[in-house]
Amino acid sequence: DTHFRDDIAAILRLKKERNAVILAHNYQTPEIFHCISDIQGDSLALARKAQGLEADVILMAGVHFMAETVKLLNPDKTVLISDPKAGCSLAESITAENVRALKAQHPGVPVVTYVNSSAEVKAETDICCTSGNAKRVMKHAAEQAGTDSVIMIPDEFLAANISKETGIKAITWPGHCEVHEQFTPRQIKQYRVMHPGVVVVAHPECPPPVIEAADFSGSTADMINFIAQEKPEKALLVTECSMSDNLAQLNPGTEFVRPCNLCPHMKRITLKGIRHALETMQTPVTIPPHLAEKARASVERMLAV
Ligand code: 13P
Ligand code: SF4
């Protein structure tokens, strides 16, 4: 696309000048995902791959909690986010004070916190999880604590979906992803009528009845791998819209039917914004040291499982 050309060329030049790498979440638009990023992935892969990078500067093309996680794991590096207002409805839904109250109500029950959360919430947490490892982490946390339940926050739907798979009871918090909570099982039924044989793949942030109506559920990386392996003629990705755009380029044999929903926070990240961030070195992510140590420990415990 010609109107992207100048910005792409400038970003590629700036990456060399700054010794910078760009990490891109799977929900980034195709020109960011395919043309300028060095590493792509779901939240888990981005956290893993952010460790031990040689670069001086890491730019996160994703939302704020993702940049914060990268900073936790790379305290001595400059971690940039081109728009610090790129938030997440899940991260906004809960405070450290809320977590302390939950712990007081349920003493001895381990706290498993979705990475879609702030550093202050992570600091109150026993172990973090992502949608890619939630099942494993939930089992591990209950086993370690010798309990048959865990406090799983802040995504009520993720907790319910994973609890069904593991049989471990989840004490939940009423946080929702504003993108995935909008999907309904009725929509899926209608699409199956309109597109016979369509393979339906849903993110576990969707309400449980949506997951029940789908053929497969998993993190954005699990969804990508499933499509690459199954090579369906038609697929419905019940998630953010850029997933279908990015996968259409990688899987020319599959037709991606909609609906999808846009994440307004992910869409704050643009090519122009990234160019400006690398030109001005704005905005660096900072985490108060008294929170960073504890928050890092809960992310590291997750990475060790
Ligand atoms: P993944 O870890 O599956 O990529 O999910 C992140 C996210 O924000 C989903 O809405
Ligand atoms: Fe948060 Fe949902 Fe957007 Fe992911 S898609 S960043 S969970 S609001």
Automatic annotation (TrEMBL):
UniProt GO cellular component terms: cytosol
Tell me the route in metabolism or biology where this protein functions: Cofactor biosynthesis; NAD(+) biosynthesis; quinolinate from iminoaspartate: step 1/1
Listed A to Z, the keywords are: 4Fe-4S, Cytoplasm, Iron, Iron-sulfur, Metal-binding, Pyridine nucleotide biosynthesis, Transferase
- Detail which positions bind iminosuccinate: 25, 43, 114-116, 131, 203-205, 220
Name the Gene3D superfamilies for this protein: NadA-like
Q: What subcellular locations does the record give?
A: Cytoplasm
| E.C. designation(s) | 2.5.1.72
Against InterPro entries, the record matches this protein to: NadA, NadA_sf, Quinolinate_synth_type2
Q: What is one Gene Ontology biological process annotated in the Swiss-Prot or TrEMBL record?
A: 'de novo' NAD+ biosynthetic process from L-aspartate
Pfam families recorded: NadA
Q: Which domain of life is it from?
A: Bacteria
Cofactor annotation comment: Binds 1 [4Fe-4S] cluster per subunit.
Residues holding [4Fe-4S] cluster: 88, 177, 263
Give the principal location in a single coarse category: cytoplasm
Q: Which GO terms describe its molecular function?
A: 4 iron, 4 sulfur cluster binding; metal ion binding; quinolinate synthetase A activity
Functional summary from the UniProt entry: Catalyzes the condensation of iminoaspartate with dihydroxyacetone phosphate to form quinolinate.
Q: Which HAMAP family match?
A: NadA_type2 (MF_00568)
What protein family does this chain belong to? Belongs to the quinolinate synthase family. Type 2 subfamily.
NCBIfam families, sorted: nadA, PRK09375.1-2, PRK09375.1-4
Q: This protein is called what?
A: Quinolinate synthase
Taxonomy of origin reads: Bacteria, Pseudomonadati, Pseudomonadota, Alphaproteobacteria, Acetobacterales
